[in-house]
Design brief:
Helix content: 25-40%
CATH architecture of the largest domain: 3-Layer(bba) Sandwich
Number of helices: 15
Oligomer: single chain
Distance between the termini: 75 Å
Strand order of the largest sheet: 3-10-4-5-6
Radius of gyration: 31 Å
Largest sheet: 5 strands, parallel
Strand content: 15-25%
Length: 502
């Protein structure tokens, strides 16, 4: 909200116990010096994370000369603040060391970015930010100021960006020098000396400037690790929030209802951040609407059946269950409804109301109602309701055919399937049982697929030991488009069933 706040670090009353003028002059009597921070609990259906990024601190590396520069080595953000009419110098470009307008300005690109020892990726916003500020210096300060950009590559990839870059060179005479910074130091006469090396030829050079501006890379915001742990979110290798999918899920996370906006997902410029935020907002609205239209898959706890063993908490891939005084506490926002806890509970003290385990048993019985011991006995396929629904649809789209004996039963997630369900299907006359889940790369839970495979590997061994035929059970994982692989595996599975049959 557009409201004033009391900055306790600079308020005379909080620092020295004097003043309180604002309290006397405010007609609404809004200032309240006795107010205390309060923790408020909000129940929401969706969360959008827009925590932005933090600027790399060049003072961490001595070669950038921040300490030695005594205010004459600044960052692009600091330069933008100086050029702002509401800034500390009322928009006048001056050196902080002596208050004099510089005659030469050198901008150093990729500071803390595209560096294998610091941050290997491109921060994406820096090139155009530097070109913009260089142009502003020429247009709004003094066209005679010599502005130079020391760059590795100029990445002007947005709409109109290449034209903007070309105009800065040809119309405003911004100079571009190819080179990687080696060292920034101050000369006795007060000039800043920048040594660099041409990455193509290996030749070294030196540039002198009154003011050095460092284009610093983007880093994850402070506190993202704590926030990720609190919400059960994943982080990528650089510490930004991990999106669900790099192509089709760039605003989604591994937690349903939690979405990413802007640079918390990775470095972006302003136009891309705005587009990302719009997409995130639309996804959040769509999610809220879906909560009203479809039944929830969150499990419910049946207290009288619970033994307090904690297996459910240990099994949950999203860490959405914690044990408090021997009782499971379910964080509904973190729960993805995969059913792993329901499957793992030995006392059946957890149940998904919209998809109880008894329902699956009834579906199995209905699918096998007319079964007779014959070569045409159905193959029950327990299918993930996401990827496998798409895969079976795609079989027809690709002109393929799967045998009529294949009888799919769709689950919200095959992770909720128990060994009892598989044994029920075999006991009631199924020729075989397939468990078809998402491919590891497509699954929200990377370890879920391996758990699924290991669980049914145990079942297959048990069936073999009992002489009931472990080859009657197959566990496969696919992406929605792997039609050929699915049909090949299905053909091989049917061949094994024939070998197994008496």
């Amino acid at each position: 909200p557009k409201k004033y706040v009391i900055d306790a670090e600079h308020c005379l009353y909080f620092q020295k116990g004097v003043c309180r003028v604002c309290e006397r002059v405010c007609p609404s009597k809004a200032p309240n010096f006795n107010d205390k921070p309060q923790l408020t609990t909000l129940e929401v259906g969706s969360i959008i994370l827009a925590t932005g990024f933090s600027e790399y601190n060049p003072a961490e590396e001595e070669k950038y000369g921040v300490q030695e520069g005594k205010g004459d080595v600044i960052t692009q953000f600091q330069l933008a603040r100086i050029l702002d009419p509401s800034g500390p110098t009322q928009g006048k470009l001056v050196r902080l060391s002596d208050g004099v307008m510089p005659k030469t300005v050198l901008m150093v690109q990729c500071v803390g970015s595209r560096d294998s020892t610091l941050f290997p990726d491109c921060s994406r916003y820096c090139c155009m930010a530097a070109i913009k500020n260089a142009t502003l210096i020429k247009v709004e300060q003094d066209p005679n100021i010599e502005v130079t950009l020391l760059y590795k590559d100029v990445r002007a990839a947005g709409k109109g960006f290449e034209e903007y870059y070309t105009r800065s060179k040809e119309r405003f005479q911004v100079r571009f020098v190819l080179g990687e910074l080696v060292r920034v130091s101050r000369k006795p006469d007060g000039k800043m000396e920048v040594k660099y090396q041409n990455p193509e030829t290996g030749e070294q050079g030196t540039l002198l400037s009154d003011l050095v501006v460092l284009s610093c890379g983007a880093r994850p915001s402070e506190g993202v690790e704590h926030l990720a742990r609190s919400l059960g979110l994943e982080l990528d290798g650089e510490g930004f929030f991990q999106e669900a999918d790099g192509k089709v899920g760039v605003v989604e996370t591994n937690i349903p209802g939690v979405y990413l906006a802007g640079c918390c997902q990775g470095p972006k410029d302003i136009p891309e951040s705005v587009e990302h935020a719009w997409a995130s907002a639309l996804k959040a609205v769509s999610h809220l609407k879906s909560l009203k239209e479809r039944p929830t898959l969150n499990p419910e706890w049946v207290e009288e059946r619970c033994g307090g063993c904690g297996i459910c908490a240990a099994t949950c891939p999203q860490k959405a269950i914690t044990m408090v005084e021997g009782k499971p506490q379910i964080v509904l926002l973190a729960c993805w409804g995969c059913g792993a806890c329901v499957m793992a509970c030995p006392n059946r003290a957890l149940e998904i109301p919209s998809y109880p385990s008894s329902r699956l048993g009834l579906e199995i019985a209905a699918a096998l109602k007319e079964t007779r011991e014959s070569a045409n006995a159905p193959i029950i396929a327990f299918c993930c309701g996401e990827c496998m629904y798409t895969l079976l649809d795609n079989v027809g789209f690709h002109g393929g055919v799967y045998p009529p004996e294949l009888t799919p039963i769709f689950l919200p997630c095959v992770n909720m399937l128990t060994m009892e369900h598989v044994l029920q299907a075999l006991n009631q006359g199924a020729a075989g049982v397939l468990v078809l889940g998402c491919k590891v790369e497509e699954s929200y839970f990377k370890d879920k697929v391996e758990r699924l495979r290991s669980r049914f590997t145990v079942l297959k061994k048990l069936l073999n030991d009992l002489g009931l035929g472990g080859k009657k059970v197959g566990v496969y994982c696919y992406a929605g488009g792997e039609v050929d692989k699915f049909l090949q595996d299905l053909e091989e599975f049917q061949r094994r069933l024939k070998e197994e049959s008496p």
